[in-house]
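Q: Joint fold for the lines below.
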Amino acid sequence: MTGLGSLISPAATLSIAHVLAGALVLASFMMLYQDRLSSVINVLALHSTVLGVAVGWQAYIQHAPELYITAGLALGFKAVVIPIALQRIVIRLGIHHQIEAVGGISVTMLAGIGLVALSLVVMLRTAAHADALAREDVALALAVILLGMLMMVTRRNAVSQIVGFMSLENGLILAAAGAQGMPLVVEISVAFSILIAFIVIGVFLFRIRERFDTVDSAALDAFRGEAQ
Amino acid sequence: MTGIAYDAVIATIAIPTLAALILAVVPSWRLAAGINVGATFLTLAASTVLLRYRPVPTELFLIDDLNIVFLLLNGFVGFTTSMFSASYIAHELQTGHLTPRYLRFYHAMYQVMMVGMNLALITNNLGLMWFGVELATLSTVMMVGIYRTPASIEASWKYLILGSVGIALALFGTILIYLAAKPVLGVGMGAMQWTNLLHRAAELDPAMLNVGFIFLLIGYGTKAGLVPMHAWLPDAHAEGPTPISAVLSGLLLNVALYAILRFKMLLAMSHATVQPGILMIGVGLLSLFFAAIMLYRRRDIKRMFAYSSIEHMGIIAFAFGIGGPLGNIAGLLQMMMHSLTKSAIFFSVGHIAQAKGTQKIAAITGLTKSHPLLGWTLVAGVAAIAGLPPFGIFTSEFLLITSTFARAPLLAVLLGFGILLAFGALLMRMTSVCFGEPSEVSYPITASSISIFLHLGIVLLVGLAMPAFLYAWFAHVATLLG
Amino acid sequence: MDLIVPLLLQLFQIGLVILVAPLLAGFVRLLKARLQRRSGPPLLQIYRDLAKLIGKDAIVAGDASWLVVLAPYAIFVLTWIAAALVPSFATGLPFSGAGDLIAVVALLGTARFFQMLAALDVATAFGGLGASREAMFASLAEPAMLMIVFTVAVVAGSSQLSAIADFMHSQAAGLRLSLGLGLVALVIVALAETGRFPVDNPATHLELTMVHEAMVLDYSGRHLALIELAHALKLTLYMSLIACIFVPFGMAGPGAALPALAIALVGYIGKLAAGAVLLAVFETTIAKMRIFRVPNFIGAALMLGLLGTLLLFVSATL
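A: Joint structure:
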């Protein structure tokens, strides 16, 4: 490991960290772009893989071995187990070929760019005193979080909303990993990703399925109670 | 560090955890309800011990004047709600709304929620506080959807999504605060400890604190039901079982607001930050007016009182926003009184809904004639929540308006107007529900009214003659809040 | 003497692109066929096709104006100049001062202008169809290309291709996020502009799916030969562009000796071959998009370019 460290200059290690964080932002954009459910889930797997690599790199340059566990969990659980489970559910519900009205990809992408710009400007101005690694990682992580929220807002299908939420969580994990030395939170956020994933997949989709024949939240909207 | 104090602190978390584990396996619902009541009573006892013996703050735990109030309130309302829940559940089983299998789950989740809330209150660590609020939220989400009707599934889905996004934003805010603290307090647990942060607040980077506070306000504000993040609240209250509505309104909203208060304390100590009060005043007024207007058109009784909770959270946020000694006292008092009153209202509404078999306001009339006990307690409750004297909420609202008038008359006028709006709606509805000719539909119920009387009694007592120690206590905390 | 060698090299480059272009197109076609388990046309088939076409009569529609006769020559010359300006194996050649990214974009734009006008001039339905589709794609692809140009130019400090290649070759560039985004965007734009999957199928003649083919349907003989050659030149141009900006390793600097030049030439051919392999694999694995989804695809390139530029303005190290 030290051999590798001497090959890469400090500036390069920083750049690699940023490229990985930027790849996560790119994966979020890819997720916004998809309109078929199975491809959305595949991009989630990609997203979590990139997260695993990014957190692993952070573990290496911060010399924080516990982050390797987080990276491993992200790779093993969120990149493999959850997408497979979601694919199974989607196939069982029979919606894997469904193309959903996403409400204009170009508008969504523009909004996404706006959000990325906003998060970069806010975080980079605010954290001007923090060290370079943390600052830009947190800025890009905020961009991923906002893009995850955008995904949840522009989608009508419950599965897509879950995937959007998971990408939001990935952004949080990146932020927590980038803020060096944050003690419990990395473990906690990973644990909660797993918990929410189980709750959501195991309980709600089947409850919804048992009540309706669709996971379309527009159908759920009919039961919204008196108009808000 | 006194051994007993430390034990009591651990007990507030350990007892509910143990109870949750036991309740997950106990098959008989009567026994489970009994264990539930017993566990909450023991937790309350542990909290009262902490009144007397205060432990020294450790890395993980902290008991100071601010959170002891909420801890006690938590224990008390948790206890009375469990008593209400025991009688409520009997009727739900009878009518077939719930099956015994779900009741095990329900009781276990109830205790898990108590663990989460207590953890959030007693901890000295930012991360653990977030963890506690998240745990409490997740357990209530599970409980809201327990009826498995389409409407309740929609309500719990919405609550899950909005709550999770809120929690995620709150975590991000916590990370930002940590980043601000890292240069000053070093890496690791030390930078996430309240006592350390408060001590060195002036040295923390103000810009980071500002941005962090905004995220925290949005994140925890979602949990507290502040507009515009409130969308989950009416549905969750209306569709979940009534004990959950009581606990949500009475406890969870308070815990979320407590979290915001902690951060407000931090920001107030640092002079270069944007004063958080302005943000809180804005959000508070927005919530107040929005909820007050929405109160007029509600057709479901629990939904109406849910909006009333939003309204009061707005008033409380406004109170802390205005700040100063009187403003803070008013806020604290209002939090306590609202918690007690709203849960009492939900207790009686729960039984009323069971008695009438419906939650629609139009179908419920003439309660004082058909069910005098329930009717008159509801009248008292609504009078209390609307801010009529001699109840405690009148005291806090009056205190708030007068202190605001001295500082910013325009805001006081707005505040008063909003309160009056809500007052009108509540009174209108109350007259239609409680008075007039009774509607035909009526089921027999055995109401447990002791909880209602306890709560309303305390509110009345505080309103008539506020105990001096209570006032002194609030005053002390108010100075901490800045 | 000092002037002769660079001048010869420059002329060699101009000739090289036009010689290599049909070979590259043929290689891609052969690879695709082999990947699809067909034997495919021979590697040098396109040369033979061009020779055959040149020998044939050029038939022009009766209603067409002089534009239809002029267009193939204009398109060919403009594309050839653009392709020749992109440094392939050596930087700092005599004409490299004119080798500006924006100039390349402008030349290609002018060629596209002639292409579309000529297609409209023939007044067939297919011509109009092809031209309107081409316009739809170009309205997004050109801004995307410009965003990429801005990104690269801000990073390298110049929009001249030779200078960019030298900058990227040196260690000063490092691994930068905006360049990564620019690369992805450039690949998408290249796919769109060269009429490859998933934007357009170069082998189709179905009216539902034609874009480029629809515009050249009425050409024959030497006109068709020129247009086909221009099309192949465009593919070479874009591959050279990607290689020059993002993979400039091995390119010989000004005044390099013969061995270095030879190595650089071999390297350049290698890069083209690698690009051909990647393109063939990509085209085999992906299906063509519906026409109305292509603006989303190219729009994504525009967004990525925009994001890359944005990152440069907001942060110094991204």
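Q: Anything notable?
A: Residues 4-35 of chain C form the longest helix (32 residues). The interface with chain A takes residues 174-177, 180-181, 184, 295-296, 299-300, 303-304, 306-307, 310-311, 314-315, 317-318 of chain C (CB under 8 Å).
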